[in-house]
Amino acid sequence: MRILRFVGRRLLQLIPVLLGVVVLTFLLVRVLPGDPIRSILGPNATEADAEAARVRFGLDQPIWKQFLDYLGGLVTGDFGTSIQSGASVTGEMALRLGPTLELVVIAVTIAVLLAIWLGIWSARRADRFGDHSVRIFALFGNSIPEFWLGLVLILVGYAALGWFPAPSGRVDPDTDLTPLTGADLIDALLTGNGPAIGSAAAHLVLPVLTLVIGVLAPLLRSVRASALEVLRSEAYAAAAAHGLPERTLLRGYLRRATLVRLPSLAALVFGTALGSTVLVEYVFSWQGFGQWALRGLLYRDYPVVQASVLIIAFAYVLVFLIADVVHAWLDPRVKI
Amino acid sequence: MPSETSTREQAVTMLDIQDLSVVIHRPGRQVAALSNVSFSVAPGEVVGLVGESGGGKSMVARAIVGMLPSGSHATGRVGFDGADVLRMDAADLAAHRGRGAAICFQNPRGALSPTRTVGRQLIDRLVTHQEMTGERARETAKELFESVGIRNPARRLEAYPHELSGGMAQRVMISLATGCAPGLLIADEPTTGLDVTLTREILRQFRHAADTDGRGVLLISHDLASIAEVCDRVVVLYAGTVVETGPAAKVLREPAHPYTRALLRSVPDVGGGRVVATAGGMPLMTAAPHDCPFAPRCAHAGDDCRSTRPETTALEPGWSLACFHPQQAPLAEATSGEPTKADTRIGDVVLKIEDAHVVYRSRFGSGGHHALRGVSLELKTGETLGVVGESGCGKSTLAKLIMGLVEPSEGSVEVAGKSVKKQSRAERTRAQMVFQDPIGSLSPRRTVGDSIAEPLRAAKVSTAERAKKTEAALARMELDGSILTRLPHELSGGQAQRIGIARALVGQPDLIVFDEPTSALDVTVQAQILDVIADVAADAGHGSVFISHDLATVRGFADRVVVLYLGRVVEEGPVDEVFDRPKHPYTRALLGSAPRLGETRTAAVQLVKDLDEADAATGCALAARCPFVTDTCRSQEQTLQSYGESRAACWRVPELPALIEKS
């Protein structure tokens, strides 16, 4: 009950945060140098053509009028019309968000589970060979640029070994997958399309691996550090001095106490991963949200930039809310 | 009372430590933590292991469960039921820990896992060591909680450690250790930080474990006087060596080793005996000593003490010590010198508190914690006011109130005739405070000289004048000028507290508040600091407020004493009157629980619950815990009334002696 009230309160707080984001991005994209109309019309367009285009996208209106129109649209779920494509931003975004979320959620989930397991394993062997190799491996993964790592994985996994499909999309078009959410693996599961499940999963392996290796290090370090802290704590020593068996110690006294600090870091990593998938998407021709937002920004496509910033902000706030609830659930000392 | 145990020598011993030495090697240094320690514990016997910090008490405990710190090298033998703990392999050690010997850790809050309910933690032990499962383990856990005095055990099983009070956490810790069904129960400083009323109760639990379950109990403490009552024998450690071993009653009344005598004399006695300080501190051994380690501090030391280490010799069967010059005079004689309380001139009023209430508001408006409920006090220069009570009674809030760190929600506080609220920065320096944590209360990045001059800087005293005054304050604390450039982490606890007192004194304030100034210090150091404070408090120039949960320290030098309970003054009066002829049932209970040297104490009044279980409803605040409660007490608020020289907030005072007789 307390948790529900806490969630409700936090969701209410979401309103002013998002409102602030809306105002800020709306103003900032307009302050940026560059003109969206010029960039889509090309060098040969006349002044009259440009003027006509401006009228068509409502850019001839005073700023406050544009803002009110935009806000009015938002309330009804309309993010505006893309200047580049002339299509509805809402529709484009729905198509792009699914694949990226699928990628990031799977990657971060795997990274968190792996970090918990490896971090505790490593802390229990602190300063021994296994511990050192795990840490060096994590640091190594953290230091490699993601696009390069992606390329290497393609070279090895596709070109040399041939285990995984070419980096040419998210699912084999021959499988006739009916798109529902945009996340292909989920669509395939929902429609029970057997060949599509296999194809989507195979396409996911390499990009997910790239992201996992990229974000594992900070999570792993954090888990290892707090596991070490717990192992050296008086409470753990007391449990050990009372002769409790290893298994009970690990499950009851080490694991939960270690995980207490992880949720907020995991939320941060999730947010970063969401923003930084652009390069991974590019390398793997993953027609996703990151690429779409990047192109919008390059062409000064105001509605697209506004919508993508808003979505990223929304995702951040939501993920941190989840992290806080998980934290409160893990740590009985936290009051919410 | 412990039974006479000199006949127990022949009984089977469970723990038998022979010639145990532990040397810890650390990069760049080496510490001889224990040197040739030998003693034993039999089943059903309670043995006290006594000494100051650094004496090696905890190291003994760790050696017994085979958890010596890394880098340590142990020689000798830690015999346990025939096996040697030092030579056990991993499997034997796992079986030995818990089932063989289980430790009750010092600081139970920290030793309980914060993310697991205490019930689960207890059931883990039951499952591991008593092969119980499911429902049966739960039932047993409930019974164990009940047996250590936890009310409402079913509900407490679901509690997390942070939801427990200090006393409750200690009870849980004891139940965890006994839940392992150990042959030997080791308690590491089980009563440090607990109130007197609770200390007795907790110690009784250990005696109970020995008497009813036949466990051996090793009770580790720095306070010989308070544990002696439940112990059969005591072992006194100094600098990693055993200096005296003997029956508890004998060692307590006629200690033979000069260190044991120093230890006992350093503890102030609630009966009014004055402490005798022993100069110096415990040395840090780098190798097993070749002389008597206590010789530099010993009044009886001769050349033999400084050149050879005394062998442990038997004085009587079961009583042995390592000393060339055993003392025989009973201890009481040495302390019988009546405290000569200087007749100080009582002057102007420096502190006046009228009907002060303090409420700590909770974060979201409604409710809050009522820390002080209508306290009125007056203090004149040259006077010392003692404030006593259990933790949570509002002592520290009172200190903060006087210093202007919290504002009264009702009532007024005046220091030197001026309301604390309206004081300027310079005027604030007229009241000074000496804190509980000596090192923590000094800024870690400031030199000692800077720290001492702090109040002077606030009062805008010139640099030259500052240096002169700092020097004078330092001289009064008998500290060398070279200490001025040092930083707090380079100081010992005793030195740091002298600095704290010097800082309070330097600006010649009107009022000094001592907030538990000695509770974080070692026993012999505590005696030295109490000496200093007694001297400072006797100054005619300022008034002093001395706050302590330890009644005996207050008795030493306070003129008047107030007893606080749940934010109210329940009794006040001249110190001898309150201590010798207490009126209020609460004061009687407090005094009855305080340890007295060489006496068997019988508490006339036993409170029926722990403080945290007593909810303050209407009527007398003590109603929930008072054994003499009537319906009148529950419905009527009690106010202070005069009874002889002192005042108490209880309407049944005249009937109490008769009531106590009856019970």
From TrEMBL, chain A:
Compartment list: Cell membrane
Signal keyword on record: no
Predominant location category: membrane
InterPro entries, sorted: BPD_transp_1_N (IPR045621), MetI-like (IPR000515), MetI-like_sf (IPR035906)
Family: Belongs to the binding-protein-dependent transport system permease family.
Organism: Paractinoplanes lichenicola
Highest rank taxon of the organism: Bacteria
Gene3D superfamilies listed in its UniProt record: MetI-like
SUPFAM superfamilies assigned: MetI-like
UniProt keyword terms in alphabetical order: Cell membrane, Membrane, Transmembrane, Transmembrane helix, Transport
ABC transmembrane type-1 domain boundaries: 97-323
Residue intervals passing through the bilayer: 12-32, 103-123, 144-164, 200-220, 265-284, 304-330
PROSITE patterns in UniProt: ABC_TM1
Membrane topology recorded in Swiss-Prot or TrEMBL: Multi-pass membrane protein
Name under which the protein is recorded: ABC transporter permease
Claim: Cell membrane is one of the keywords in the record: yes
